[in-house]
Design goal:
The chain is built from 18 helices and 16 strands. It is an alpha/beta fold.
Length: 516
């Protein structure tokens, strides 16, 4: 069997947090193969210029090297691949992760431009892919990959993990140099994969939900809490409580298990959608109280925006293709429905969560190209109102504003291309190269993102860019667009100083400093 080195590339400028993907890949190998020659090399916290000296693969053996990549770390992943091939040209290099998976078309680009350093692109779940590579399989024998054969990109058969297969794999954690989860949230744990929504900005979605059973979740948590001593867990499901009743039962079970074994004691955080904090047969207050009693101390709520036009455009509520088909009256009726069903519900959720000593983190997107003065007004008023709800409550309200950016394979990516240059199939390759280069514009962009937004770099910041330049396949920040967003942000920040409201506004730089 070949040895396997799984690498998390440097992630400077983004939120550090050990990639859960590599942990679950090794969990699978340990489960399927028992003792096996695989290990994780965590370079997240290293500087990209130093990676070469950290990679200690054998120079003359046949080894497999797997590198994970988000759009933010893609260029670093390529540099790691280059360093690997420099040490051992016979190493088999496979790149996987959200930047390159099915639907992004990045496999074509990677293999066309980087076939000297990348042998395989993994297009989905990587478990069976790396198992096959370790077993010495090649080409189309390796499931879930794209590879070059006679200069042509070929695809092997898909090979994702079924819910039953995933259920069998126990979760465990390994030594990592970088932080285990974001901020101070301990270890990331995913109890269900997938999401059947399709928000236009999101890299996941329209993906079958694969939940682990309650028993498996409890035994996974026991492993890390009781045996590994972890005291804080971040449930990093795409959105938690996809099944409200099952989540309620899980919380009750956590409480019972803690009563049986006082060592099974931990705090936890999760992120969820507005619609999933209550169901018809389960009162909101009962649900939130039980979550809190079971250890929940922070809930992120993906509200994203309060302007119904933006909610529809982002497909956060409803289906975006309907915009063009509806008469103005029908459209207004729909918006009214959003206000009553979504926005009002967000306020109701916030009120109940904040009546417990829980941090409520509102996930909020700004900087979409279609934002206008009315969007700003609606959002500022709504945030003000939300801050008033939080005033003098036991819980605390936090705003995590992220800059609207475009990832490969998203509906926003389709729109960006249709509005600029539909044939630009290397737009993400070109953008990530530009973002990782040394130009002054790039420095300006990174500083602007770090100082103002809760999320760091990664993705094309389309609301900031000059569309004329984009049509010429160039990336240039439009100073007027930047000024508008800055002034909008300034008004949002002023809420922090308003004595009538209680809200914390976050930024990447502040959060990183706080958690160090
Ligand atoms: C938890 C999380 C984090 C955590 C911690 C990381 C962690 N524990 O994974 C924190 C908060 C730190 C974080 C940070 C960031 N994140 Co994040 N994060 C997630 C989240 C919610 C879950 C990740 C996870 O554990 N998934 C479960 C695993 C099992 O699934 P997976 O990652 O898809 O991995 C499978 C396959 O993709 C494949 N695979 C993955 N890597 C590899 C490598 C090889 C060799 C192979 C063969 C296969 C393979 O096999 C895996 C197992 O089947 C995802 C959404 C999601 N559903 O994945 C977003 C997500 C990955 N994050 C995202 C982003 C944007 C970021 C940041 C850039 C934010 C920022 N600007 O700072 C940073 C970047 C960090 C980095 N190093 O790249 C985007 C990425 C989009 C994109 N195209 O790049 C996602 C998809 C969110 C979204 N919905 O858009 N994140
Ligand atoms: S933003 Fe959340 S709900 Fe929307 S597609 Fe992504 S994971 Fe699903």
């Amino acid at each position: 069997m070949k040895s396997l080195c799984l690498i998390a590339p440097p992630c400077e400028g983004t939120m550090e947090g050990f990639p859960g993907a590599l942990t679950v890949l090794k969990n699978y190998l340990d489960h399927k193969l028992g003792e096996n020659p695989s290990y994780i090399l965590d370079l997240e916290a290293e500087s990209i210029s130093q990676v070469g000296k950290h990679i200690s693969i054998p120079q003359d053996e046949e080894v497999v090297v797997g590198i994970t990549a988000t759009t933010a770390t893609y260029q670093n992943a390529l540099q790691v691949a280059r360093a690997v091939k420099g040490i051992n040209p016979n190493a088999t290099v496979v790149v996987g992760g959200h930047h390159v998976k099915y639907g992004t078309n990045q496999d074509q680009v990677v293999l066309e431009y980087h076939s000297d350093i990348v042998d395989y692109v993994c297009l989905g779940d990587g478990e069976k892919t790396i198992e096959a590579l370790m077993q010495g399989k090649t080409g189309s024998e390796v499931p879930n990959v794209a590879f070059l054969s006679d200069g042509q990109v070929q695809h092997s058969q898909s090979g994702g993990l079924s819910t039953d297969e995933w259920e069998q794999v126990p979760f465990s954690i390994y030594e990592a140099k970088s932080k285990a989860g974001k901020f101070d949230e301990g270890v990331s744990y995913v109890s269900a994969r997938g999401c059947n929504y399709k928000c236009t900005f999101c890299s996941v979605g329209r993906d079958v939900i694969r939940p682990k059973s309650e028993d498996r979740i409890i035994s996974d948590l026991e492993e890390i809490v009781v045996r590994k001593g972890v005291k804080s867990i971040a449930f990093e499901n795409n959105f938690f409580s996809q099944n409200v009743r099952a989540t309620y039962q899980l919380a009750q079970r956590l409480i019972q298990e803690r009563e049986k074994n006082p060592d099974f004691d931990f705090n936890w955080t999760c992120q969820t959608r507005v619609e999933y904090l209550s169901s018809r047969d389960l009162p909101l207050d009962d649900f939130v109280s039980t979550l809190h009693e079971s250890g929940a101390n922070k809930i992120y709520l993906g509200i994203e925006n309060f302007d119904p036009r933006l909610l529809l455009e982002m497909s956060k509520v409803g289906n975006p293709v309907e915009i063009g088909n509806l008469s103005p009256e029908r459209l207004e009726a729909r918006f009214q429905q959003f206000r009553e069903k979504y926005v009002a519900r967000a306020f109701e959720n916030a009120g109940v969560v904040l009546s417990h000593p829980i941090e409520l983190g509102v996930l909020f997107i700004l900087g979409r190209p279609s934002e206008d003065a009315l969007t700003e007004q609606i959002n500022l008023e709504s945030l003000h109102q939300l801050g008033q709800v939080a005033k003098d409550k036991p819980g605390t309200l936090h705003l995590y504003q992220s800059l609207s950016v475009v990832y490969p394979g998203t509906l926003d990516a389709d729109r960006l291309l249709s509005e600029t240059d539909p044939s630009w199939n290397t737009i993400f390759e070109d953008f990530t190269e530009w973002e990782n280069g040394n130009g002054p514009e790039r420095e300006r962009l990174l500083d602007f993102i770090r100082e103002n937004f809760a999320h760091g770099a990664g993705g094309i910041p389309w609301g900031l860019l000059d569309y004329g330049a984009l049509k010429e396949r160039e990336f240039r920040i439009d100073p007027k667009k930047q000024a508008r967003i800055e002034s909008y942000l300034k008004k949002i920040r002023e809420l922090e100083r308003d004595p009538n409201v209680s809200i914390g506004i976050h930024s990447f730089v502040d959060d990183i400093q706080m958690s160090q």
